[in-house]
User: Which sequence fits this backbone?
């Protein structure tokens, strides 16, 4: 949050963080149609609005499910090329039980992998898959739906095919681990990266190609029992994240899970810069947020007609020609 | 392991994809006519027919010379090696007879079980030696898909981690080699129905086995869109005291598959195991009516469950050929309907009673 506030010249105080979340949480009933869950940070779960209403209450009153980040960040895996695992298993059961009492019904745990010449290594894949499965198992024991997030960073110059290949390997390991740990898949959600080229890849790909690569990877690895896949936005801009999600939902391959969003920056960037820490800007900032929420709600149904250049047919011919999935 | 070294070209993938989809096209399943010499001996003995090459040929001819309209229900036929090089009475090679009906020709590729030392009577499957060369030859001889049967059993101590791991691995090696030679691999991890375990136990074991199979296929870079799965249905053990209606079998089966089989797999062709012809059809039908999503084709790959009546009608006498063919065509047609959930049984049709049974007792 420090980084976000720094970017708009706002001091990172607890009060500012509270005010900012209030901007988002005070959105009116329009968000009911497009937001099904909100992931909280621990501090925010116990904060209140100006009128004294706990944020948890405000969200629940809108019929939206409350979730909580439960991991405790990355730690290095010695002997690897700068790879990590994620900590947070200690006392996780007790924490989940408490969060459940305090109104949370789902949780999120983020693992991180990266693509480079020699990564992700077999150890990184195995260890992160295992820790995700332990987390998921513990969550379910406490009535909490685990969102499983094995993020493969977009950093690098690799192409779309490489990302697809790595994503398939990672997800296969994740679902084997979930099976080994007896996790009830119908009560989980997946939060993966979309399959995209690396940020510094010289080749550009259309949203249709990204969609095809993404859906192909998921079809090869995510059991249909999983109810939904909620993509992370990674480094994508707000519009990019919406257009790609829309293309995914228009991909001509059969998609047995819901394909939707779990966006942070891609939902908040405009709201943040509209707010700039000024109370007078609150309503406008909230409107910006609602706008992105509605756009992504449409994208999740494949119904978002973006105002940008119509790639339409040209976009389609690209993906058929180049990429053997 | 982070770089892809593509196992298949786009053209190879396309060919495998199309063959797999052709085999499980809507309303179609597979005739498993790949009984080994020994197994065929068992079948023939039951109808008092001598197990000679000619008798084996004659019976397969009865099946294969059925009217071409059989291709509405049969998308593929699995051959045994011997049969692939036999001919019908007019001198035509059997694979050509089948191909001319627009049906895909397959071949049994495994070489039977071998014991896994240190386990409770568990086995692995042999057949990897020279498999690439054999696949290449079969491809030249008209074959477009292969079949490899791994076997696991349920007891107090089995299947063990080793048995699951080893059989999943050999299945994946076989699948990888097949695809390199343009053959669609049918992956068959059969969990035997022997035992007194209940439906829940079979479901649990099936889920563990299939998870291991698909992890192995992924590890071995197998192109899932160009494969088929041939699993057991999830059923209670043959000596289980509790009986389950088809709807529960269906629910347990589809649930297990939803939890383990990626949507990229085009089709799942159940083995019939110890089931009777009618049982196998009724269960397949219930599976296709199960109120859960079903992103793959759910059809049949039946041996006994397609041939039992035909075999009995034939009894080794050429005069009975027509009757035997009719019996076979009838089962094929019924199973074709069952693969679409359109098989209306003539038997007791108390569907409502059946429904209430499964919702009450069984948590999946």
Assistant:
């Amino acid at each position: 949050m420090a980084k976000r506030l720094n970017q708009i010249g706002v001091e990172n105080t607890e009060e500012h963080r509270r005010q900012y979340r209030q901007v988002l949480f005070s959105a009116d009933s329009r968000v009911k149609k497009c937001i099904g869950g909100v992931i909280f940070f621990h501090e925010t779960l116990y904060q209140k609005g100006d009128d004294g209403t706990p944020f948890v209450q405000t969200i629940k009153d809108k019929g939206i499910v409350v979730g909580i980040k439960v991991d405790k960040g990355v730690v290095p895996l010695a002997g690897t090329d700068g790879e990590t695992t994620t900590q947070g298993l200690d006392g996780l059961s007790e924490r989940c039980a408490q969060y459940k009492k305090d109104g949370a019904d789902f949780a999120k745990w983020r693992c991180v992998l990266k693509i480079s010449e020699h990564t992700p290594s077999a150890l990184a894949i195995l260890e992160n898959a295992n820790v995700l499965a332990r987390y998921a198992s513990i969550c379910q024991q406490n009535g909490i739906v685990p969102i499983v997030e094995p993020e493969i960073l977009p950093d690098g110059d690799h192409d779309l095919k490489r990302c697809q290949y790595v994503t398939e390997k990672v997800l296969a390991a994740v679902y084997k681990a979930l099976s080994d740990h007896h996790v009830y898949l119908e009560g989980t959600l997946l939060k993966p990266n979309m399959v995209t080229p690396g940020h510094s890849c010289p080749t550009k790909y259309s949203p249709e190609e990204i969609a095809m690569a993404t859906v192909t990877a998921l079809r090869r690895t995510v059991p249909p029992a999983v109810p939904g896949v909620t993509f992370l936005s990674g480094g994508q801009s707000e519009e990019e994240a919406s257009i790609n999600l829309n293309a995914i939902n228009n991909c001509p391959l059969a998609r047995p899970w819901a394909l939707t969003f779990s966006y942070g920056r891609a939902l908040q960037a405009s709201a943040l810069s509209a707010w700039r820490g000024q109370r007078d800007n609150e309503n406008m900032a909230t409107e910006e947020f609602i706008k992105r929420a509605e756009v992504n709600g449409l994208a999740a149904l494949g119904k978002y007609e973006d105002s940008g250049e119509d790639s339409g047919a040209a976009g389609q011919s690209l993906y058929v020609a180049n990429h053997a999935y | 392991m982070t770089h892809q070294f593509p196992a298949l070209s786009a053209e190879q993938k396309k060919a495998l994809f199309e063959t797999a989809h052709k085999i499980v096209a809507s309303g179609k399943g597979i005739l498993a006519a790949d009984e080994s010499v020994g197994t065929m001996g068992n079948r023939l003995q039951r109808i008092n027919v001598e197990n000679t090459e000619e008798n084996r040929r004659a019976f397969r001819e009865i099946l294969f010379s059925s009217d071409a309209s059989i291709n509405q229900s049969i998308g593929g036929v699995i051959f045994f090696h011997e049969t692939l090089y036999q001919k019908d009475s007019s001198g035509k090679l059997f694979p050509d007879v089948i191909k001319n009906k627009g049906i895909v020709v397959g071949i049994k590729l495994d070489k039977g079980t071998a014991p896994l030392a240190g386990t409770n009577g568990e086995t692995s499957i042999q057949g990897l030696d020279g498999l690439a060369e054999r696949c290449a030859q079969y491809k030249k001889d008209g074959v477009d898909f292969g079949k490899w049967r791994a076997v696991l059993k349920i007891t107090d101590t089995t299947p063990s981690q080793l048995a699951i791991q080893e059989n999943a691995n050999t299945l994946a090696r076989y699948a990888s080699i097949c695809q390199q030679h343009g053959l669609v691999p049918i992956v068959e991890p059969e969990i035997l129905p022997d035992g007194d375990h209940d439906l829940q136990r079979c479901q649990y074991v099936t889920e563990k086995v299939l998870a291991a199979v698909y992890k192995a296929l992924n590890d071995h870079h197998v192109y899932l869109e160009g494969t088929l799965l041939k699993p057991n249905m999830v059923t209670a053990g043959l000596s289980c005291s509790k009986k389950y209606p088809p709807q529960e079998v269906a629910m347990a089966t589809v649930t297990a598959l939803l939890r383990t089989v990626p949507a990229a797999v085009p089709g799942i062709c159940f083995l019939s195991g110890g089931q009777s012809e009618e049982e196998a059809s009724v269960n397949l039908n219930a599976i296709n009516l199960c109120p859960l999503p079903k992103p793959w084709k759910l059809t049949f790959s039946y041996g006994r469950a397609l041939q039992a009546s035909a075999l009995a009608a034939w009894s080794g006498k050429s005069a009975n050929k027509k009757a035997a063919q009719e019996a076979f065509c009838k089962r094929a047609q019924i199973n074709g309907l069952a693969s679409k959930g359109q098989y209306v049984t003539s038997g007791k049709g108390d569907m409502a009673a059946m429904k209430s049974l499964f919702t009450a007792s069984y948590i999946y």
In short: DSSP finds twelve helices and nine strands in chain A. Chain A has two domains: 1-66+264-302, 70-85+106-263.
